[in-house]
Amino acid sequence: MLCSRKMFNLFVSKNVRKILKRKDSDAGEKGKALEDLRSSLFNELRSSEGARRYQQRLCGPMVALTFNFLVSVGIILMNKLVLGKVGFNYPIFLTFIHYVVSWFLMAILNTLSMLPAPPTKASRLSSLFALGVVMSLSTGLANVSLKYNSVGFYQMAKIAVTPSIVVAEFILLRKKVSFQKALALTVVSAGVAIATVTDVQFHFFGACMTLAWIVPSAVNKIMWSSMQQRENWTALALMWKTTPITVFFLVVMMPWLDPPGILSFKWDVGNTSIILMSALLGFLLQWSGALALGATSAITHVVLGQFKTCVILIGGYLLFGSNPGITSICGAITALMGMSVYTYLNLHNSEQHSNKTVSKQASFSSPKSKLSRENGDTHIGNDAAESV
Question: Which of 69, 103, 212, 289 is deepest in the core (most CB within 10 A)?
Fold first, then answer.
């Protein structure tokens, strides 16, 4: 009896050890599979092509445009707080702080190996240098224009960016705009002009800075869109390469365009915190703008900015009881109608493009299927002859 009990205990202990070993091996296999999946995902994000596919999968046109729209509204309110309540009247230095904070955040991502790699076939250094220069001019001169002119005059000047982009894309990229899209863009521009005509106040120096801002702004949007779509750059990788160039030229512009007295500003905890929050939103604005330009086009991004103007105007009228006047409301509604037509034309063209792509793929596959059917028929005939 005692012997049988010992044998039973030995048998049970052996089975338990086998089960534990099996569980350990299963856990080890699952852990290895999870580690392989994590390493493959990490390698995909570190490569330019994989990061570009991942960006396109997560940030489609609608997501990127919505992200940029929300951040744009937020930074407008924050910059009004910085320039108004805080009294930080140094627009170029504020832009400089934005880009330095952006570079610092991207440096952290790069240290943690979370920054996407540049494409294997890297762009020419001259292209990256030109993009950094036009970024500094576009952002810096825009803030100078906002300091000296009214928001309405700034919005009126943004209307000139649309034809500038059309002309520049035709000269640089040989891209043409259809007559229907040109008509829709004309309606949008006219509506925005009517909506903002009641708030057109400008300073002579500010007007000169606005005129100097139009061309760099158009070229900036075109380069961001084309370099991402044609050369497989991701938004963060391109920002990482061009931000130091932008920071350098902002330092060069600072003594010429900013007033003296930056060191005498009251850098207390409250003011510094608000400026740093504005800089964080500036990083998100730059990133979301790059995502939107990579997912859509330069003209679509300009139309999004005009859509933001109309939404803010109509939203203030409906929600907060502001009275911009019946002329401005009618202009905003007209602009929204033109934007709806422009969006419909874009969706229609993309649908036609996808249908053409599918038909081309079908035409390429049909000769192969026909050949395979003929080979199959011949093979069947040979088998029948042999069997007979």
Answer: 289
Q: How far is CA 313 from CA 69, 289, 301, 316, 328, in A?
A: 14, 22, 19, 5, 8
101: containing domain: 67-354
Cα R_g (the chain), whole angstroms = 30
What would the pLDDT profile of 103-139 be if each residue is shown by its tens digit? 999 999 889 888 887 887 767 888 899 999 999 999 8
Q: The tokens of 161 are what?
A: 């960016």
Burial of 105 (0-12, 13-18, 19+ CB in 10 A): middle
Question: How far apart are the C-alpha atoms of 295 and 309, rounded to whole Å?
Answer: 22
Token look-up 């907060």 returns 320
Look at the chain and count its residues: 388
- For residues 225 and 299, the answer to whether their CB atoms sit within 8 Å is no
Nearest to 238 by CA among 303, 164, 289, 297: 289
Helix residue ranges, H only, 149-234: 151-159, 161-173, 179-196, 204-231
Structural domain tally of the chain?
1
Q: For the segment 334-350, what is each residue's pLDDT rounded down to a tens digit?
A: 888 888 888 888 777 76
Residue 10 lies inside a defined structural domain of this protein: no
Residue type, 259: P
CB 165 within 8 A of CB 299: yes
> CA-to-CA distance for 60 and 54, rounded, in angstroms?
10
| Residue found by looking up tokens 């330095």 in the block | 100
CA distance 74 to 227: 27
Cα separation, 342 vs 93, in Å, equals 37
Residue 183 resides in a domain: yes
For residue 360, give both structure tokens.
């081309």
Asked, for residue 60, whether it belongs to a domain, the answer is no
d(CA 66, CA 21): 52
**What span, in angstroms and rounded, lies between the C-alpha atoms of 281 and 72?**
8
